[in-house]
Amino acid sequence: MKLLPIGIQTFEKIINGNYYYVDKTMFVKKLEEGGYYFLSRPRRFGKSLFLDTLKEAFSGNKELFKGLYLYENWNWEKRYPVIRLDLSQAYPDTVENLKESISSFLRKIANEHGITLEEKILGLKFQELIQKLYEKYNEKVVVLIDEYDKPILDVIEDIEKAKQNRDILKKFFEILKPSDPYLRLVFLTGVSRFSKVSIFSGLNQLNDITVDRNFSTICGYTQSELESVFYDRIKDFDKEKIKQWYNGYSWLGESVYNPFDILLLFDKKMFKPYWFETGTPTFLIKMFMKNRYYVPELESLEVGEEILSNLDVDNIFPENLLFQAGYLTIKEFMEEYGTYILSYPNLEVRKSFNSSFLVYVFKEPVRVSKTETNIKRAILTKDIDKLKDVLYSFFAGIPHDWYRNNDIASYEGFYSSVVYALFNGAGLEIRVEDSTSVGRIDLSILSEDAVYILEFKVVEDKEEYKALKQIKEKRYYEKYKDKEVYLIGIEFSKEKKNIVSFEWEKV
Fold it and tell me: Is residue 81 in a domain?
């Protein structure tokens, strides 16, 4: 049995160290003619490993590719000088530190090739390195830049500092245009797709392959790759459960798994949110609260191309960050309208994101976790009265001072967002029937042999309670004739900050 390459981003180490490797070298072949490429993928998705694979291919290290697609499909006679920069290693806390970090990276590469750099200005030093490598080897240069956006994202909550770092990177990348005669391939990766105007204004020929069917599986594991490469590991697991938990990321092509999740699952032999735990979406949730975002809309979010690709420090959209960070993925592309339908990729993200939302709002992770567990237990045991007690207890336990100090509870979608997040955080299978009517939410909760259809309304105290009646009128339950169906109507009072009506019946 081979070793699991957890956290290893070096192609040579994986090949020579008897680690599992999913062959992605056919995508290297697609880049053989050179050019300028940009790829965005969420963190821990294999971007750095692919960049290192590019480095070894263009450096002509043939023996590393033995048994892989590229071994018989590459011109190994040609070797190119490579500049590889990992900007995640830069220090972005000040302008001076960022400039000096990148400058030191350039000096290190120059020293490795026996080259002396004389320019002092950062961009000119980069240009000088490119030209001198070209002159020394009489071959065009390959430039690989990993995590190009990290110096911006690390300081994104300080807008002025983020703008300063953006402007430094913009000037740095601009030097690639006059260096074009000396360049063979330029490949940049990152999490975010900042607009070309803000970062890559000088690179009109930049080919963004982020949402491209030809490169959709360049990172991540497809179902067939998972089952063929890890055949001796996956036999010990329920394939459908693995798929439910970790598959579902899509960039117009076949859906893929996040490699980090799969490797940790095979290592720990437990289903946990391994990828999600490597970073929390605090900044995003803070934006939600500020903009009074209706969380159930994340089930089926319709956006245009401009939302997916034109992130900029001056104009940040929550939808953009959600997609680029991997919390949402493409579920459908409506070509006739030029719009995309986004949703959670899988159970890991759905469950964990909603739990994080609740913990951020209420600051009580233990109570949130206990409530989610009790909700799941009530649903699986068909104890609807217990479900009522759990929900009532959760809202009743929120201190009055919390409402007094937080105006977010005054917007109509808040209560339904909380209920929605509780059921999702419990890890239940949920379908949203009407996810756009702010102020109420229609949920279908599916268990193995039962369906729970829930209507949630925010009401004034003197208003007639009619949530259960509305469920009957919509007749959603008719499509679940093969299961037990429970109808649950819940009304929430803005004034009393709790449930004022909870009615249910079995049909």
Answer: yes
| Predicted model pTM | 0.92
Full residue range of the structural domain in which residue 142 is found? 34-55+75-215
Question: Does some domain include residue 307?
Answer: no
| Overall domain count for the chain | 3
- Please say whether the dihedral angle defined by the alpha carbons of residues 492, 497, 500 and 504, taken in this order, is positive or negative: positive
DSSP characters for 224-270?
Answer: HHHHHHTHHHHTTS-HHHHHHHH--B-SSSS-BB-HHHHHHHHHH-S
> Phi and psi of 145, rounded to 5°?
-120, 115
Query: Residue 326 and residue 349: Cα distance in Å, rounded?
Result: 9
Helix, strand and coil content of the chain, in percent to the nearest 5, comes to 45, 20, 35
Are the C-beta atoms of residues 244 and 50 closer than 8 Å to each other?
no
We report the CATH number of the domain holding residue 129 as 3.40.50
Instruction: Give the DSSP letter of residue 42.
Output: -
Query: Within a domain: residue 288?
Result: no
* Each residue's pLDDT tens digit, 478-492: 888 888 999 999 988
Residue 137 CA neighbour count, 13 Å, CB half? 21
Are residues 269 and 407 both part of a single domain?
no
382-402 pLDDT tens trace: 999 999 999 999 988 887 776
Q: Is the dihedral of CA 150, 151, 155, 161 positive or negative?
A: negative
Q: Strand, helix or coil at 117?
A: coil
Q: What contacts 245, CB < 8 A, 6 or more positions away?
A: 261, 265, 271, 346, 347, 348
**Quick one: 205 and 90 in the same domain?**
yes
Residue 133: the pLDDT is 98
User: Helices 159-174 and 95-112, interaxial angle, to 10°?
Assistant: 30
86 and 186 in a single domain? The answer is: yes
Give the per-residue pLDDT at 110.
98
